[in-house]
Specification:
single chain, eight-stranded parallel β-sheet, alpha/beta, TIM Barrel
């Protein structure tokens, strides 16, 4: 197991979808290589931006295998393995371990709300036990706005106390920076990744291990210029690009801009229940993106 864990600029990579509603592994893995070659320290495969919960168990497993079969550096990739059904989460987490992913990103079981900490500890404990032969690091995914079930600080302390260094970190998509700071203070070995590149100053010099961001699909090079070299103008441009999606659906927006950046309309495809960006939103996002890039170059 990689005990040092992932760090730095991590893109929550989008998953390409073909016209039949199947994951397009060729496009997805090509984007992965592009991002790793252009600023990303790592990738989060099949997270929210990767539309994981819109794919079947078999589809998710095929996508996971495609990343390994493409010869990508698996020590730089984590993958979402959380599911409402424990058996599915176990199957996905074992698959991730067998393929050599550097970590499993685990949503809480998200259907039943108001569940006890004991139930959540049992869920994580089952994943830990099921992967004891191949002890893949577990990163918890805190996104209560969508999951409805938080990994709160008291529970995080309990999980780390019971399962030790198998619980390596947290992706925090709550937007609650005081929570993220409190979580990061639990243990020096517990790595917290806010979901915005705006947190990179605190990753460079403070409590966070980096960021895991949807918009790093679009601005990873800018993020890297700041994280590695302190280029504040690059960070400002990266944050400007992220703000293009304020008040708009993030995943369709990211995919609309991927289609623009890579000159490939198929990237705009999303899985139901998401729908693609409207023509007006797409035009506004493209104009804003191109302006942010031009300003940085100037």
């Amino acid at each position: 197991m990689n005990k040092s864990g992932l760090a730095g600029v991590i893109a929550a990579i989008a998953t390409a979808v073909d016209n039949k509603g199947e994951p397009d592994s060729g496009r997805a893995t090509a984007l992965a290589r592009f991002l790793l070659d252009n600023g990303c320290d790592g990738l989060n495969v099949l997270g929210t931006t990767g539309e994981a919960t819109s794919f079947s168990l078999a589809q998710r497993q095929r996508v996971m295998r495609a990343y390994a079969d493409a010869g990508l550096p698996m020590d730089r990739l984590m993958v979402g393995t959380g599911a409402a059904a424990l058996a599915d989460a176990v199957a996905l987490t074992r698959h991730a371990a067998d393929l050599g992913f550097a970590g499993a990103l685990v949503l809480p079981p998200f259907y039943y709300k108001g569940v006890s900490d004991d139930g959540l500890v049992a869920y994580v404990g089952a994943l830990v036990a099921a992967t004891s032969a191949r002890p893949i690091p577990i990163y918890l995914y805190h996104f209560p706005a969508l999951s409805g079930v938080p990994w709160h600080v008291k529970l995080l302390r309990r999980l780390i106390g019971e399962f030790g260094n198998r619980i390596l970190g947290l992706k925090d998509s709550s937007g609650d920076m005081p929570f993220a700071r409190e979580a990061a203070a639990i243990a020096s070995t517990f790595k917290v990744f806010p979901s915005t590149e705006a947190a990179l100053p605190d990753a460079r010099e403070g409590p966070f291990a980096g960021c895991i961001s949807a918009t790093a699909n679009l601005n990873a090079d800018l993020c890297a210029r700041f994280f590695r070299h302190g280029d504040r103008a690059a960070l400002d441009a990266a944050v400007t690009i992220r703000k293009l999606f304020d008040g708009k659906p993030l995943v369709p927006g990211v995919k609309a801009l991927l289609a623009h950046i890579h000159g490939d309309r198929a990237w705009a495809n999303v899985m139901p229940p998401l729908v693609g960006f409207s023509a007006a939103d797409r035009a506004a996002a493209i104009a804003g993106y191109d302006a942010a890039r031009a300003k940085k170059v100037a």
